[in-house]
Amino acid sequence: MVTENLKKFNTPVFPFTAIVGQEEMKLALQLNVIDPKIGGVMIMGDRGTGKSTTIRAIADLLPEIEVVKDDPFNSHKSDLELMGNEVKMAVQNNKTLETELIKIPMVDLPLGATEDRVCGTIDIEKALTEGIKAFEPGLLAKANRGILYVDEVNLLDDHLVDILLDSAASGWNTVEREGISIRHPARFVLVGSGNPEEGELRPQLLDRFGMHAEIRTVKDPILRVKVVEERTSFDQTPQLWIENYESQQQALRDQIVAAQKLLPSVEIDYDLRVKISEVCSQLDVDGLRGDIVTNRAAKAHAAYNGRDKVTLQDIEKIITLCLRHRLRKDPLESIDSGDKVGKVFREIFEIEE
């Protein structure tokens, strides 16, 4: 009864399956949910193109997760990589843990956030007087096993972006204060969005995002009218809308869960791996992050489509998303970086245009 009342008071979220267009962004988000190790998504696009709406919608779509009750890190009851120290100790001492189901955490990072608010802080007074490590968890702790969303990531302080990307890559957050050190799990899907007119992200930070989706404003007048009508209709009767799309939402939810289970058994042929690296090499991509992410994303795409073997079509669908932001910027280059990736991909994989 209490949960039913809570549902009534929750702000209704626009259904993910009702979002018109923006296929590239939707695909990138779904693949990151299937395999968070892809490393997050950077979504760059015009104002008012539904970036925030889509990100909130994917969080609402995802199935509930089982967490240890009253644990600040949303700890997993058996996976050591996803549990805080207290839960780990309890597991080692064979204590029974109470668990509960919660919606996947969706944490918004405000632009004005301080480092202490993001990472968490240690209560020095308590540590000195009572002799215990008193940790006040931050946003990274809240986001463990969920989604961390940074709007206008290109306006966020560089050192904060660095902290976020480090945690997203390693899955752990370490807080060092006054000679006390605390480490906790922080495995989340990092989603950043921004408007290119407000400035670019530094290349070394941009490279750390697994995928980069670009969004354009819809030009087709009929499609624009459809978007406006659907949004207006949703605002007037949100509950009815949510009910109408429930079967589609559930079907997509099941597809994502099935893909997560299938992912460990997905394989990619050696020849395809060599060709992916050839594309990266010819595009002069620095480092090996591009190769790794493209392989992971291709496997996630195959799993999403219910296959245990990666095909050429899987790679074609994701390679631009994974590589377009890793190319060196050439001011004299007339071709768009996404088109350049596509062109080199077709040459190496010998696909007719």
Oligomer: single chain
Instruction: Supply the number of helical segments.
Output: 16
- Mean pLDDT comes to 83
Spatial ordering of strands, largest sheet: 4-7-10-1-11
Helix content: 40-55%
* Main sheet overview: 5 strands, parallel
Keywords: ATP-binding, Chlorophyll biosynthesis, Chloroplast, Ligase, Nucleotide-binding, Photosynthesis, Plastid
GO molecular function, one term: hydrolase activity
Family: Belongs to the Mg-chelatase subunits D/I family.
Main location: plastid
What secondary-structure arrangement, pairings included, does this model have?
Elements: H1 2-9, H2 23-34, E1 41-45, H3 51-61, E2 65-68, H4 85-92, E3 99-102, E4 106-108, H5 115-119, E5 120-122, H6 124-130, E6 135-137, H7 139-143, E7 147-151, H8 158-170, E8 172-177, E9 180-185, E10 189-194, H9 203-206, E11 211-215, H10 221-236, H11 238-244, H12 246-262, H13 270-282, H14 289-304, H15 312-323, H16 337-348
Parallel strand pairs: 1-10, 1-11, 4-7, 7-10
Antiparallel strand pairs: 2-3, 5-6, 8-9
Helix pairs in contact: 2-3, 10-11, 12-14, 13-14, 13-16, 14-15, 15-16
